């Protein structure tokens, strides 16, 4: 069955993603099933998207209710869930006079942020024409977001990209400080870099960046597309002391959201903080047909309600700590960078080298990922030696236990295959 679907896939789908590893047919809670009936525990959640896991009753109920009431209306009109979601997000972000723009994806949220930065540049007489982004940053695949994305292999096939973007070394404040002056419209940063392997910055870095932006009047934009909506144990990473190094949140001028927000429904958001930044866009300057439609916003509201009512932020912290502590004690693992249920795992190759074992071609981590599938786990690799876990926020200690038991064998099998 799976083979049949994959064959048809290859005949009819653009080869954008390589060959998918499985065809999935069903999901429930933290589990999904493939077309051959095999069950997998989902430690990736559709890349940090399925915050409530699969087919969560609250999400199904909200979506069904909305679909049977009012599905799509265009932005010539508004709807109750759209306004309620904007109120809810600004409240959770702690800005009384902020504003939301809704899109359909992360990259679109960042396109809006890019245009916000340009608007800001124009509003200051056009002298602010620079945007600073970080090395190893990932902000999306459309042309604007791609211009902010570091990886050469993503960018080069599509050049020329929108200009004015300067990259500086990630986590190196002196390097950033050397570029920030009054020609800079905005600095865009993921508070923890997700696609780079869940990588944080040195203590105090984000605070220093905030201060430099204040000093030179540049906007600070946080891309919280992966880190937001409870992923790290707080609503947003900018509120997480383990990430900011401060009990006070490091409040950005704008923030982008997507992934976890819709719990699987496509939605993105640009949230601006304070009146001045929130008034940079005027009517007609940007737009979207689908963005913020009743289906997506009603579902997102259900995600936020469920996170709150079910105490999922506490669950993220508790299960996240347990998972990280347990992983650190396993053989074959060198280091775990853990922020709630968002973890980057560095595999240990020193012991392997000492035993004279060679590493699989293409990297050990991708091999561990495919071995894990055979064992019934969905995990992810962000590099040759780096694994990423981003399970649903509802996952329990009992549900992470089997992976902890099997992971050493999975790694050993992946190594054995290469030797
Ligand atoms: C996934 C991601 C994006 C892009 O979101 P899409 O919905 O895939 O367009 C942008 N920024 C960050 C930090 C992301 O993790």
From TrEMBL:
Catalytic reaction list: N(2)-acetyl-L-ornithine + 2-oxoglutarate = N-acetyl-L-glutamate 5-semialdehyde + L-glutamate
User: Which residues are annotated as modified residue N6-(pyridoxal phosphate)lysine in the UniProt record?
Assistant: 259
- Is Amino-acid biosynthesis among the key words of this record? yes
Q: Which SUPFAM superfamilies match?
A: PLP-dependent transferases
Subcellular compartments? Cytoplasm
Q: In which pathway does it act?
A: Amino-acid biosynthesis; L-arginine biosynthesis; N(2)-acetyl-L-ornithine from L-glutamate: step 4/4
The cofactor remark states:
Binds 1 pyridoxal phosphate per subunit.
Q: Mind listing the UniProt keywords for this protein, alphabetically?
A: Amino-acid biosynthesis, Aminotransferase, Arginine biosynthesis, Cytoplasm, Pyridoxal phosphate, Transferase
The EC number of this protein is: 2.6.1.11
List the InterPro entries.
AcOrn/SuccOrn_fam, Aminotrans_3, Class-III_PLP-dep_AT, PyrdxlP-dep_Trfase, PyrdxlP-dep_Trfase_major, PyrdxlP-dep_Trfase_small
Give the required cofactors: pyridoxal 5'-phosphate
Which positions are annotated as binding pyridoxal 5'-phosphate?
106-107, 138, 223-226, 289
- UniProt key word Amino-acid biosynthesis: yes
Record-annotated residues binding N(2)-acetyl-L-ornithine? Answer: 141, 288
Q: How does it assemble?
A: Homodimer.
So what family is this one in? Belongs to the class-III pyridoxal-phosphate-dependent aminotransferase family. ArgD subfamily.
Give additional notes from the record: May also have succinyldiaminopimelate aminotransferase activity, thus carrying out the corresponding step in lysine biosynthesis.
Name of the protein in its database record? Acetylornithine aminotransferase
The lineage, from the top, is:
Bacteria, Bacillati, Actinomycetota, Actinomycetes, Micrococcales
